[in-house]
Amino acid sequence: FAELHAAVVGLPAAASRVLPGLVLRRDFATYCPAGGDLRAVLVTEALRPALSAPGVEFVVDSEGQYQASLCWIARRTEAVMKHLQSNNVKLLLSSVKQEQVVISYAKLYGISVVECLSSEEVSLLCEIAGVSPYAPHSDNLHGEITETTGVTFCQPLLLGSKRCVHIGLASVCAFQPHCLILCGPVDGVTEQHAAAVQGVFTMLQQLFKTVDQ
Question: Which of 2, 71, 109, 200 is 20 to 30 A distant from 99 in Cα terms?
Fold first, then answer.
């Protein structure tokens, strides 16, 4: 329930509404409007490659080697983003904050980026879309990415004074996600409304469990 409702303070309760899809309570790291057949991928690691594996020391003997290393990182990052673009990926959902080089290439290739998703949001997205997080490998940057999911819309959303992300994902299950926007003049009112609605859903869950049995 926490991921399927958003509280907006400063508006009358009558402004509350239900929106199809999911509302992520953060702004885009970069936003590239797109239409048509959209695909999204979920990642849980930085897409900018590291120069060495964890626990391995990387030694640079000269400024030239250091600059060459930076060029390799940039080329590798661009290759990853270009691979996403070739698979018609227009939305990158990330549980970690990506490096600026990733954001720059995402903007270049027309890919919107949302960062810092919570573990609960990641789990919900995986359940709805029926996919696992995408992990690019240096020896596999060609062909189809099987971890993509369909996106019906992807757009900014202003809730009060807060900029949010509003997305619609193609669901692989009977559950069609909707987000409840609860408005109120102060925090206490929206918290009361949220608790009341959650209580109703909990009661309905218990009722249907009893009927099934």
Answer: 2
